[in-house]
Design goal:
The chain is built from nine helices and no strands. It has 256 residues and is mainly alpha-helical. Helix 2 packs parallel to helix 7. It is globular, with a radius of gyration of 23 Å.
């Protein structure tokens, strides 16, 4: 069997989409009811709200719902009964991986943008009709919305890796693992600063007390936005590669 076939991949992504369509529809209906209820109870008659709430709700639904959704993306691979059906699907590893990455990542993001735009419009229409209040409509092109989208695309890759590596409670375990990595990174940076800039700190205590300014020159390239995007993109590709290698390792280990 070839490593990648577009016709096989199309069938795989259709099969995965059908599997998640019902819970996603139920979740969307729940979000619709909750959002409309909040709009109706937080606006006042005749009020025009300039500090909009919709970017906050968009971030909650995108990050909260998306990361939870991603953490369950490979649940059938770890399930004691469903894993055999998962392994018997006539497709390659890369096709499985791309299907679930696209469904939980870019396609989910597009779905949330379209669905929340409709939900926000409907909530605005109902509040305008019911109590005469309204707020500016949601736009995915504001600075805050674009920042939330970039955060989700990067966090999604990390959560996808956790969904592959952890057999249960992937969301909690991935969050704790990431927290431990961040704590370890901060501790390592603290130790390195104390070593390489030993004369800039007070050695009478372990507190981060600087006795003279630190001179830490950075490359001028990092002043450019394209350089930061390139580094973030390279980091994301590396995590995706690690996730794919973990997926291949899981499918050949004992017990699968």
């Amino acid at each position: 069997m070839s490593e990648f076939s577009f016709s096989r991949f199309k069938r795989v992504i259709q099969n995965d989409a059908l599997r998640i369509a019902r819970p996603l529809a139920y979740g969307t209906l729940a979000v619709l009811g909750l959002t409309v209820l909040i709009y109706l109870t937080n606006f006042h008659t005749g009020e025009m709200v300039y500090q909009t709430m919709n970017p906050v709700f968009f971030g909650i639904y995108l990050l909260g719902g998306g990361l939870l959704f991603t953490s369950l993306g490979f649940q059938d691979m770890h399930h004691p009964l469903e894993r055999y059906q998962y392994l018997m699907l006539p497709c390659s590893n890369i096709e499985r991986f791309l299907s679930r990455y696209l469904l939980t990542g870019p396609l989910y993001l597009l779905y949330v943008i379209l669905a929340f735009s409709g939900i926000d419009w409907l909530g605005n229409q109902l509040t305008a009709w019911w109590i005469g209040a309204r707020q500016p409509l949601f736009s995915p092109f504001t600075a805050l919305s674009l920042l939330l989208i970039r955060i989700y695309l990067l966090a999604h890759i990390v959560m996808l890796t956790g969904a592959i590596c952890f057999r249960s409670h992937a969301l909690i375990k991935t969050a704790l693992s990431l927290l431990l990595l961040l704590v370890g990174f901060v501790a390592a940076m603290y130790v390195l600063l104390r070593i390489f800039y030993w004369d800039a700190f007070s050695w009478t205590s372990f507190h981060f007390h600087v006795v003279k300014p630190l001179q830490v020159p950075l490359l001028p390239l990092f002043d450019a936005a394209w350089m930061n995007f390139a580094v973030a993109g390279g980091f994301a590709l590396w995590i995706l590669y690690v996730a794919y290698r973990c997926l291949r390792a899981h499918e050949v280990q004992d017990g699968l």
